[in-house]
Amino acid sequence: MKVLVAVKRVIDYNVKVRVKSDKTDVDLANVKMALNPFCEIAVEEAVRLKEAGTATEVVVVSIGSKPCQEQLRTALALGADRAIQVDAQDQLDSLSVARILQKVAEEESADLILLGKQAIDSDNNQTGQMLAALMDRPQATFASEVVVEGESLKVTREIDGGLQTLSLKLPAVVTTDLRLNEPRYASLPNIMKAKKKPLDVKTPDELGAQLSAGAELLSVEPPAERQAGIKVGSVEELVDKLRNEAKVVA
Amino acid sequence: MSILIITEHDNQSLKPVTLNLVTAAQQIGGDIDLLVAGENAQAAAEAASAIAGVRKVIHADNAAYAHQLAENLSKLVVELADGYSHILAPGTTTGKNVAPRVAALLGVNQLSDISAVEAPDTFKRPIYAGNAIATVKSSDPVKVITVRGTAFDAAEATGGSANVEACGSVHQHADVSFVGEELAKSDRPELTAASVVISGGRGMGNGENFELLNKVADKLGAAVGASRAAVDAGFVPNDMQVGQTGKMVAPELYIAVGISGAIQHLAGMKDSKIIVAINKDEEAPIFQVADYGLVGDLFEAVPELESRL
């Protein structure tokens, strides 16, 4: 089974984002960038499938300008076998990304395509579903457990009401949720080894992917700030405030 | 303009978020139709037809739609899409599962989790875990949108008398099947629809201690939530998680107990009307967003709270 993992370069999870003063976007100048946390979980799951002898090869792909090669190298250091950078503008819309991934998946004859459920920058939560639709293949989003059973997958999904289990025939698309696994740290020898692993660069044109126009970003503003309220000295005072000031308790 | 809303339901009753979507659709403007796709979902279709402001209800009933699998539901929606300017789905796990599939099949992009309607083609949506709000304009011929339910008021559940039209189309993807589900059973209100939510964090110490919160919840008619830390620690199941990657809530009253207030948690609850924080660490960031903060031991404060309510 060949596994394709799509990954995205995003602002580091721990960085507090700030909106630019002209409100055109958030300020990403000189900000630490990293592998999107959900993508990291997807890479980890693929590597575990390889270690279990289920996956034969793990190919990792990212779409963006040259710096996304850093995140591809991170994925290689975590255990992916080779990488593909599709050279395109950063912040491409989800449909364009899905169309590019469809071409890569076809070219690679991938059996399982793993993605994070969402990127922590745009918070879209779309690409995996779009890719599955374009390929007319089954999907399992928000996966918390993936079990390979021959030519099928049994996937447990985290849904609003609890857990749901689906059976999918391969090829299939799976998007990862937080509790699927805990990604490992890349060891120094593996980071060194990753530098020698193959990394191909392709363009959307070479792949024959047609790009779409995304929604136009008119402005970005900081959210309305909440003012810190008061500290109360006792539970009695708290209940009094809730009853008589906020009037949210009868 | 006309708007199609993909409703979420359990075949018996509609999810309350449907009413918030109707309000979002009214703000966009135009005729509003509701799709109820399920199996033996007559009761849900009838509830949909009673919502004020609905033109018609399309009811597709077949085993293929029993669990609203995205593969099947998306093809049904695409078949029905002709003539609609907007297709709305709730920003729930079901809505997020199906809407992007619909958009991709229609060859358009999808707007996720809108929190405000500025114009029929322009919307606000949170990005970066709610740390920035983007205003985006779509030029796609049909706008496929998921809606953050808590950002819109609920429409009236009664007063309408829309026609229910049966739709016999069946789309069944051969390569996906439903195996089973484990749904949390609770007599308490659903987290995203509750007017009061009490949540516990790592400070609760273990799952048994959530019983303290349950007792308060029973007195207030509240739903019980949790921070990611509490879920990751195994105290409570994942469906209780409030935050960036869990559920978004905006109740009248949110009580955070033993929750420090990580940015990812705040993203899921900071639109609550009144926030109460109970935490022994007076430096905890949760106090920066709390209307009323109580610094103290939750194991003393929560039982006392229960007894005083």
TrEMBL record, chain A:
Task: Tell me which family the UniProt entry assigns to this protein.
Answer: Belongs to the ETF beta-subunit/FixA family.
| Source organism superkingdom | Bacteria
UniProt subunit comment: Heterodimer of an alpha and a beta subunit.
Q: CDD domains, from UniProt?
A: ETF_beta
Protein name (database record):
Electron transfer flavoprotein subunit beta
Listed InterPro entries: ET-Flavoprotein_bsu_CS, ETF_a/b_N, ETF_b, ETF_beta_N, Rossmann-like_a/b/a_fold
- Output the SMART domains linked to this UniProt entry: ETF (SM00893)
What is known about what this protein does?
The electron transfer flavoprotein serves as a specific electron acceptor for other dehydrogenases. It transfers the electrons to the main respiratory chain via ETF-ubiquinone oxidoreductase (ETF dehydrogenase).
Give the GO biological process terms. Answer: carboxylic acid catabolic process
Domain (Electron transfer flavoprotein alpha/beta-subunit N-terminal) spans: 23-211
Query: Is this entry keyworded Electron transport?
Result: yes
One Gene Ontology term of the molecular function aspect: electron transfer activity
- Cofactor annotation: AMP
State if Transport is listed as a keyword. yes
One Pfam family this chain carries?
A: ETF
Q: Which UniProt keywords apply?
A: Electron transport, Transport
TrEMBL record, chain B:
Q: Does the keyword Electron transport apply?
A: yes
Kindly give the CDD domains that the UniProt entry links to this protein. Answer: ETF_alpha (cd01715)
What does the record give under GO molecular function?
electron transfer activity; flavin adenine dinucleotide binding
According to its UniProt record, which cofactors does this protein need?
A: FAD
The alphabetical list of record keywords is:
Electron transport, FAD, Flavoprotein, Transport
Q: Name the residues that bind FAD.
A: 202, 227-228, 241-245, 258-265, 279
Membership in a protein family? Belongs to the ETF alpha-subunit/FixB family.
- Tell me, in a sentence or two, what this protein's role is: The electron transfer flavoprotein serves as a specific electron acceptor for other dehydrogenases. It transfers the electrons to the main respiratory chain via ETF-ubiquinone oxidoreductase (ETF dehydrogenase).
Tell me what this protein is called: Electron transfer flavoprotein subunit alpha
Give the species.
Marinobacterium stanieri
Lineage of the source organism?
Answer: Bacteria, Pseudomonadati, Pseudomonadota, Gammaproteobacteria, Oceanospirillales
